[in-house]
Design brief:
The protein has about 675 residues and is of the alpha/beta class. The chain is built from 26 helices and 15 strands. The strands form 3 sheets. The protein has a 7-stranded mixed beta sheet with strand order 9-10-11-12-13-14-15, sandwiched between helices. Strands 2-3-4-1-5 form a 5-stranded parallel beta sheet. A 3-stranded antiparallel beta sheet has the order 6-8-7.
C-alpha cells in the first residue's frame, strides 16, 4: 500500500520539477522586491522537492522489508501507517500545484486559440502558491524523521527481487464452475442432490450446508445448483448472496431479478412480494441463499411468504451457524468435513503444479506436501497458498513459505494463517488494488471495468508509457483472480467479481479502517455508524436523509466516496421517517436533515472533501449537484446516476484533473442522453 504512494509521489515530483524550475529561471523584467521574493519562493520549493525525492528514494528501497514485517511487528506497522499519512499530505500539496499548472496551461491554450497567433510560449510560468513553501518544508521534515526511524527499525534495503514470482500465466477465461477444479466433494454433492430430488410430496423444504469459513460450502452449493439432474427437474432457479444484512425487501427484489433476469424497478415490499408470488405460482423452484447470518425468525417468515404460491420449493442455505439453520426451519443439515489429505494434495497440485507434480523436483513436491498439511484441510487455504507458489521453481521461496512465522500467528485458524502469508507475498502494486475492493460490503458484485476505472483514477496502475494503461490494469485484475484474491462471478453480458467473505475479512484486517462501508436502513443505524477518521475510501448505502447525516461526520481525509441512495423512495421515505416511532425518538437530531433533503434532494456541501479522487453519486431522487463540487481539485473520477437530475453546475468546468465522467440520467429528456466520457491519456474506457 505504501509502495504505490511513494512511487506516485516520485512520479508527481518528477513531472512538476520542470514547471518549478521554469519559475526559478524565468527572466525578470523588473528588480522589484516582489519578483525577487517570488523567485526565492520558487527556488525554496525546488530545493525542498529535490531533497524530498532523494529521501523518498531511500525510503522506497526499504519498503519490501517493511511490508513483509508489518504483519508481525507492531513498530513496523506504525512506521508504515505514519509513512502513508505523510505521503497522503504530500500528494495533496503537490496535487494542488499540479492543478494550478494544468489550469494555467489550459487557460493559456484558450487564449492562444482565441488570438489567432501562430507563435506560442515554450512553457507557461506558474506562480508558486504562498503557502506551498511552508507546507512542503514541514512535509520534508516529517519524511526526514521517518527516514531516521527506518534506520532505527533496521529495515533492509532491497529492489524487490526477492519477491515471489510476480507474473502468473493467464489461463483461458470461463464463466461457469468447472468441476475439474473441485476435489474431494463428490460424495457430499451426491448426497445433497439426492435429497433435493427426493420427498416430492413435501412442497417446501430447506436444506442447510453448515461449516466454518473456507471449508467449501458455496462450492458444494454451486455444483448442486448446476447439476444436470437438478436442472431437468425444476422450472425456476435463483441464487442470492445474503451476507450479514437480512433486508427482506432487498432480498425479495434480488430473488425476483435472479429468477427472471429482469429488473422491474419495484421498491415497495408489498409490490415485490406480489410480483414474486406471481412469478413462482404453480412452478417448481430451487433457490440458493448463500452466506446467511440471520437469527431473526420473523424476518425469515416474511421472506418465505410469497413461496406459498409455488408448487414445489427447495431452498439451499449456506451458513456458518446452526442457529441460523434452525431459524429457517431446516429439514436436513449437511456438514462438510475438512478435506482428506489425498484430496488436499490433488487441489494443491492442480494450482501449484498445474496437476503435473511428476515433472517437478522431488524437493518441491515434498515441501509442497508439508505446506499443504499446514492448511488444515481447508480448500480455500490450500488454493490460496498453492496459487502463490504457481510457476515458482526457486527452492528458497518454498522454504520461505514453509517456515514462515505467520503460520503461528493464528494457531486456532489455519485459513487465516495461510491467507496472511499469501497477502504478505502479494506484489506491492497489487495490494492497493486488492484492498480497495474491501471498501464495498461483503458479497458486493463489482463490475470488472468499474474496478479498473477506480484503480486508474487513484494512480494504482504503474505504466511506463509504452502500453495502454487499461491493458496493464486488466493484467492486475487477472493476476488477483489467479492468486485467488477475487472470485469470478461473470455472466454472458458482464464480467464481474467479488471477494469471498473470508478474503473480505482479510482485506479489512490489513486496511485498518482505511476502507469502510456503511449501510443505513433506519434511523437507529445512524447512532451505530460512526465512520472512523482513518477512513480514506467510504461506501455508503441507504436512504437519502440518513446518508447526509453520515457525511456530516469529520471525514476530510476521504479519497473515495461512493454513495448509493437508490433505496430512497421520495415522499415515502419522508413518511417513514416522521411516522416511525424510532425516528420520532431521534427527531431532534434528524428532522432538519429530512426537511433539507426533501426540499431539493441534493447531497450536502462537498467542500470539506477536497482530497477526493473518486466521487460516485447514485440516487433516483438526486436532482442537484452542488456548486461546491468545483472545490474537488484532485477529482479524477466522477460518476452520477439519477433519472431526476435536472442540471449540472457550470463550476464542473474547473475540474481540470477529471479523467473519467460518467453521467447516467436515463428517462430524463431535459438532460439529453446518458453518456460516459473517458479523458485519461492511454485510457479509452471499456
Amino acid at each position: 500500500m505504501a509502495g504505490y504512494l511513494i512511487t506516485s509521489l516520485l512520479s508527481l515530483g518528477t513531472n512538476l520539477l520542470p514547471s518549478i524550475r521554469a519559475s526559478v529561471q524565468a527572466p525578470s523584467f523588473s528588480s522589484s522586491n516582489s519578483n525577487n521574493s517570488e523567485r526565492a519562493c520558487a527556488r525554496a520549493v525546488e530545493e525542498d522537492l529535490e531533497r524530498l525525492m532523494r529521501t523518498l528514494e531511500r525510503i522506497k528501497a526499504t519498503l519490501y522489508d517493511a511490508e513483509e514485517r508489518e504483519i508481525k511487528e507492531r513498530s513496523v506497522k506504525l512506521w508504515l501507517k505514519e509513512l502513508k499519512k505523510v505521503a497522503y499530505d504530500a500528494e495533496d500539496v503537490l496535487g494542488e500545484y499540479r492543478y494550478k499548472v494544468t489550469r494555467v496551461q489550459l487557460e493559456a491554450r484558450k487564449a492562444f486559440e482565441a488570438s489567432g497567433s501562430h507563435k506560442r510560449k515554450k512553457m507557461e510560468i506558474v506562480q508558486i502558491p504562498d503557502d506551498m513553501v511552508d507546507r512542503l518544508n514541514k512535509i520534508r521534515s516529517r519524511f526526514d524523521e521517518i527516514a531516521k526511524d527506518r534506520e532505527a527499525l533496521q529495515l533492509r534495503e532491497s529492489d524487490g527481487v526477492r519477491r515471489l514470482n510476480n507474473k502468473i500465466l493467464r489461463p483461458p477465461m470461463g464463466h461457469m464452475v468447472d468441476k475439474a477444479n473441485i476435489f474431494g466433494r463428490d460424495a457430499e454433492i451426491e448426497e445433497v442432490v439426492d435429497f433435493l430430488l427426493s420427498a416430492k410430496e413435501k412442497p417446501f423444504l430447506v436444506i442447510s450446508i453448515i461449516g466454518k469459513g473456507g471449508i467449501g460450502k458455496t462450492t458444494i452449493a454451486q455444483l448442486v445448483y448446476k447439476d444436470e439432474r437438478v436442472i431437468r427437474c425444476f422450472d425456476l432457479f435463483g441464487w442470492v448472496c445474503v451476507s450479514e444484512e437480512f433486508d427482506v425487501g432487498r432480498l425479495t427484489k434480488a430473488i425476483i431479478e435472479s429468477v427472471t433476469e429482469i429488473n422491474y424497478g419495484l421498491s415497495e415490499l408489498s409490490s415485490l412480494q406480489e410480483k414474486l408470488a406471481k412469478t413462482v405460482k404453480g412452478k417448481t423452484i430451487v433457490l440458493v441463499l448463500d452466506d446467511v447470518w440471520n437469527e431473526n425468525q420473523s424476518l425469515w417468515d416474511s421472506l418465505r411468504v410469497p413461496f406459498k404460491e409455488a408448487k414445489l420449493v427447495r431452498i439451499l442455505v449456506t451458513t456458518r451457524n446452526k442457529k441460523v439453520a434452525d431459524v429457517m426451519q431446516t429439514t436436513t443439515y449437511f456438514r462438510p468435513t475438512n478435506m482428506p489429505e489425498d484430496s488436499c494434495w490433488q487441489l494443491f497440485q492442480h494450482y501449484a503444479f498445474s496437476g503435473k507434480s511428476d515433472t517437478m523436483p522431488a524437493q518441491l513436491v515434498n515441501m509442497g506436501k508439508d505446506i499443504m498439511r499446514k492448511c488444515g484441510g481447508l480448500p480455500l487455504a490450500v488454493k490460496s497458498i498453492a496459487s502463490l507458489l504457481r510457476h515458482e521453481t526457486d527452492e528458497e521461496r518454498w522454504i520461505e513459505i514453509l517456515e514462515n512465522d505467520l503460520w503461528e500467528s493464528y494457531p486456532s485458524n489455519d485459513i487465516f494463517s495461510a491467507l496472511q502469508i499469501s497477502y504478505a507475498h502479494l506484489p506491492a502494486h497489487l495490494k492497493s488494488c486488492f484492498l480497495l475492493c474491501s471498501m464495498y460490503p461483503k458479497d458486493y458484485l463489482l463490475e470488472k471495468m468499474h474496478l479498473i476505472e477506480l484503480w486508474i483514477s487513484h494512480g494504482y496502475i504503474e505504466s511506463n508509457g509504452k502500453r495502454r494503461i487499461t491493458e496493464i490494469a486488466v493484467e492486475y485484475y487477472e493476476e488477483l483472480k489467479q492468486r485467488s484474491f477475487i472470485d469470478d462471478f461473470s455472466s454472458v453480458s458482464k464480467e464481474r467479481c467479488k471477494l469471498h467473505d473470508i478474503i473480505h475479512d482479510l482485506a479489512r484486517l490489513n486496511s485498518e479502517n482505511e476502507h469502510y462501508s456503511v449501510d443505513i436502513n433506519q434511523p437507529l443505524d445512524i447512532l451505530k455508524e460512526n465512520v472512523p477518521q482513518e477512513a480514506c475510501h467510504l461506501y455508503v448505502d441507504g436512504f437519502f436523509g440518513y446518508v447526509n447525516q453520515v457525511l456530516r461526520q469529520n471525514l476530510m481525509g476521504l479519497r473515495t466516496l461512493s454513495i448509493d441512495m437508490r433505496r430512497c423512495y421520495g415522499d415515502l421515505e419522508h413518511e417513514y421517517c416522521i411516522n416511525n416511532p424510532e425516528a420520532m425518538d431521534l427527531n431532534s437530531r434528524l428532522s432538519e436533515c429530512y426537511t433539507e433533503c426533501l426540499r431539493d434532494f441534493q447531497i450536502c456541501n462537498l467542500t470539506k472533501f477536497e482530497a477526493l479522487r473518486v466521487l460516485e453519486l447514485k440516487g433516483d431522487y438526486l436532482t442537484i449537484i452542488p456548486d461546491s463540487i468545483s472545490e474537488l481539485k484532485h477529482l479524477a473520477h466522477l460518476d452520477i446516476e439519477s433519472p431526476s437530475l435536472e442540471t449540472l453546475p457550470l463550476s464542473m468546468g474547473l475540474l481540470y484533473n477529471l479523467q473519467t465522467l460518467i453521467l447516467d440520467n436515463k428517462d430524463n429528456e431535459s438532460m439529453g442522453e446518458s453518456y460516459k466520457c473517458s479523458l485519461v491519456k492511454g485510457y479509452d474506457g471499456p
